[in-house]
C-alpha cells in the first residue's frame, strides 16, 4: 500500500493519500516506482478510516516493488499519535524484549483506539516506504527516519543519530571476523556511505554475517544509533539485537 502516488506517467505531479478527494476515486494513479506500471486507485476515500493507494488486480505491481505486496503497511492498523521514532529504535536494540507480543482481540483493526504504533523494524520500514520521504509521520520527516535512495540527499554531511538505513553488503569483503564487524554500503550518484555494524557477541556476529551472506543480493535494512567512525563518510553503530535487522527481497 502507498500513502502517495503520481497523477502522471512522467511522475511529476505527486499526490498524498490524505489530500485525495472523493471526486478522485475513479482516477488512475501511477506507482512511485518508475519501473512499475501498476494502476493505482485511492482506497477508503469515503470511509472514516485513513485513505491510501492500492493497485487493481489486473494491473498490479511488478515483483518486489516496494509499494506493492511486500509493503503491507495500512495506516489504519497503527496508532500514529503514539509513535516515537527514537524510542522505537532504542527498543529494537534491547535483546531481552520480545516483540512477538500476541495481539489482543480487536487490537488489529480500523480506527481502533487500542492500535499500537509501528514497532518492529519491518513495520517502521514499511511505514517509511509507504510515505513520500518529505512527508511526516507523527511530526517526524520520513527521510529523517529512513535513509534510502529517495532520502539520501537529506544527508549531505553524513548519518548521525537514530536512523534506519537501507544498504547492500560491501564488496568484495563485507565482514571482518577479528574485529567482529560487518560493512554495508549505501550509494547514490557521487556519494557513497559505508556503515559498520560492530558486535560485542561472537555468536550474534556469526549469525548475522550468515544471514547477510545468504541474502547478499538483497537490501539489508539496519536500525541503529549512528556515529562517525573517524573516517570520512564511514559511520558505525553497535549491533546488539537481531531485531535491528531486516532483509528486503
Ligand atoms: Zn509499484
Helix content: 10-25%
Approximately what portion of the residues adopt beta-strand conformation?
A: 25-35%
**Can you count the beta strands?**
15
Query: Per CATH, which architecture of the largest domain?
Result: Beta Barrel
Largest pleated sheet: 5 strands, mixed, barrel
Radius of gyration: 19 Å
How far the N terminus sits from the C terminus, by CA atoms, comes to 17 Å
> Which molecules are bound in this entry?
zinc ion
Low-pLDDT sequence parts: 102-112
For the largest beta sheet, what order do the strands appear in spatially? 9-11-12-14-13
Quaternary assembly: single chain
Q: Can you tell me the CATH superfamily of the largest domain?
A: Nucleic acid-binding proteins
Question: How many DSSP H or I helices?
Answer: 3
SSE succession: EEEEEHHEEEEEEEHEEE
Envelope shape: globular
Which fold does the CATH topology of the largest domain refer to?
Answer: OB fold (Dihydrolipoamide Acetyltransferase, E2P)
Can you tell me the number of structural domains?
2
Amino acid at each position: 500500500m502507498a500513502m502517495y502516488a503520481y497523477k502522471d506517467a512522467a511522475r511529476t505531479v505527486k499526490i498524498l493519500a490524505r489530500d485525495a478527494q472523493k471526486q478522485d476515486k475513479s482516477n488512475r494513479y501511477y506507482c512511485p516506482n518508475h519501473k512499475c506500471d501498476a494502476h493505482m486507485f485511492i482506497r477508503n476515500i469515503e470511509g472514516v478510516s485513513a485513505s491510501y493507494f492500492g493497485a487493481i488486480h489486473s494491473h498490479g505491481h511488478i515483483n518486489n516493488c516496494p509499494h506493492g505486496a511486500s509493503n503491507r503497511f495500512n495506516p489504519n492498523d497503527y496508532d500514529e499519535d503514539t509513535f516515537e521514532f527514537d524510542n522505537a529504535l532504542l527498543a529494537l536494540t534491547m535483546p531481552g524484549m520480545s516483540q512477538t507480543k500476541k495481539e489482543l482481540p480487536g487490537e488489529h483493526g480500523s480506527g481502533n483506539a487500542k492500535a499500537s504504533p509501528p514497532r518492529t523494524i519491518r513495520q517502521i520500514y514499511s511505514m517509511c516506504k509507504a510515505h513520500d520521504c518529505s512527508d511526516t509521520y507523527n511530526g517526524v520527516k520520513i527521510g529523517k527516519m529512513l535513509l534510502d535512495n529517495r532520502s539520501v540527499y537529506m544527508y549531505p554531511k553524513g548519518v548521525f543519530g537514530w536512523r534506519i538505513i537501507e544498504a547492500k553488503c560491501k564488496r568484495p569483503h563485507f565482514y571482518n571476523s577479528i574485529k567482529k564487524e560487518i560493512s554495508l554500503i549505501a550509494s547514490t550518484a557521487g556519494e557513497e556511505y559505508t556503515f559498520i555494524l560492530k558486535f560485542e557477541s561472537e555468536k550474534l556476529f556469526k549469525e548475522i554475517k550468515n544471514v547477510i551472506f545468504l541474502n547478499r543480493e538483497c537490501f539489508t535494512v539496519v536500525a541503529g544509533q549512528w556515529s562517525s567512525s573517524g573516517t570520512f563518510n564511514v559511520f558505525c553503530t553497535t549491533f546488539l539485537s537481531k531485531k535491528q535487522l531486516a532483509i528486503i527481497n
